[in-house]
Amino acid sequence: MATEQEITSADERRQLLTPPPTPTDSAPFSVFTPPQKRWILFLAGFASFFSPLSSFIFYPAIVPIASDLGVTVGLVNLAITTYMIVSGIVPAILGSAADKIGRRPVYILALSIYFVANIGLATQNSYPALLVLRMVQSAGSSGTISLGYGIISDIATPSERGSYVGIFVLGPNVAPPLGPVIGGVIAAKLGWRWIFWFLVIFGGVCLLTILLALPETSRTIVGNGSIPATGVNQTLSSLFLSKTRKEGNSSAEGTTPKARLASFPNPLASFKLLLQQDLLVLLLCNGIFYAACACVQTSLSSLFVQVYGYKELQAGLIYIPFGKFLDFEYTRIARAHGYDPDEARKKLMDGFPIELARLRSAFYVVVLTAVATTGYGWAVQKQVHVAIPLAIQAVIGFTASAAFVAFGTLITDLNPGRSSTAAASSNIVRASLAAAGTAALQPIIDAVGAGWCFTIFGFIFATCGPLIIYQIKIGPKWRKLRGSK
């Protein structure tokens, strides 16, 4: 007979691939109305804005902070490295907790930590305090992105997730270009401390809004939204929202959430996902894109000051259309492979080629991003008109964001029961690669010039092309093997 430990291990493996009970005709996937879903998605995107914002808003203040605290710029730059290290670790803990105890409690905890850390940063007067509080700030903000992917998995069917991810990534993707502008203006007009007071105010508004108006969406706690939340999972708005929800659709999902509450959050769950073959390729491609884009964005301040004599930021980008295109691909491929589109919209069906639906168009995005990145480096090195590298930056921003939508949506699809945990796994890989890439950026530029430096990054982008083809071909086999263990 199987031991209790073997049974527990088998249950954990099944939970990885098995979503909460699928809705029947009388029980929709989610009882949240479209306006409610849009509101929830807005709050998730709003919260996810703070992790990259807190990183990029810091850059214009490096020199005045170093001067005021009496330390070198190199030491202040260390606060950037430690920020990125923490942002790669903490989401693994928060993501697992959110999949077990719900989204709301983890959001409240994370943003409360972030709020207190910013107050400390605004009032501290020593370098050790700066270093420690920057890590605490990162701990509070970095988990919000993985929490957002968890919410998307809770409320969006597979056919909707492309659009939802496309909207959601507006938050983390607009922060890098906006952060330096906001930080520069505040540092110049009010002083660097007001950068952190700005984050206190802005983060406090987000925390208060979530406390008052973000309903619990975790299917572990509320099923498809029809099971009333209690305690910290309950919000004041739930009293009003419950009046508009449909009754009688909790029978299919009522027992499972209660049974799963007993399990304790496992911070190592995100690291275990790194060992899954079908996920590792996705996480690696997503990390490569994130790291290379971070290097392109980081190069702005140094290269544009050196080459053109001033700093510009890439134009605002549009992220939503590619998400809509992913939804169209999902339905089209369902028809092409003999699946009922209406049934396929509700759930990820056995044998459905989800890798093809999500990644086929991403292959062309990879090629375009690789070419644009290489062109960006040589445009700067040859000192062409400033409009050209800025236009190329806009292209890179759009294509890379499209790739993030595709990768993020598929990672969520493959982990319906642990979407926040899976997003945290993605964060581990991308934060590690980004830290290494940004550390190597300036030495490479100094050694071979901007042209060859970004040719190297373009080649790194291009390696994702064969990996995507490999994932499309082999991914279904790996997924089936993982589900049969």
From TrEMBL:
InterPro entries associated with the record: MFS (IPR011701), MFS_dom (IPR020846), MFS_trans_sf (IPR036259)
Domain Major facilitator superfamily (MFS) profile positions: 40-479
Keyword Manganese: no
GO CC terms: plasma membrane
Entry-linked SUPFAM superfamilies: MFS general substrate transporter (SSF103473)
Keyword Amino-acid biosynthesis: no
Topology class, membrane: Multi-pass membrane protein
Subcellular location, record wording: Membrane
Membrane spanning stretches: 39-62, 74-94, 106-123, 129-152, 164-188, 194-214, 279-300, 361-379, 386-411, 449-472
Entry keywords, A to Z: Membrane, Transmembrane, Transmembrane helix, Transport
An example Gene Ontology molecular-function term: transmembrane transporter activity
Region (Disordered): 1-29
Superkingdom assignment: Eukaryota
Protein name stated in the entry: Major facilitator superfamily (MFS) profile domain-containing protein
Organism in which the protein naturally occurs: Xylaria hypoxylon
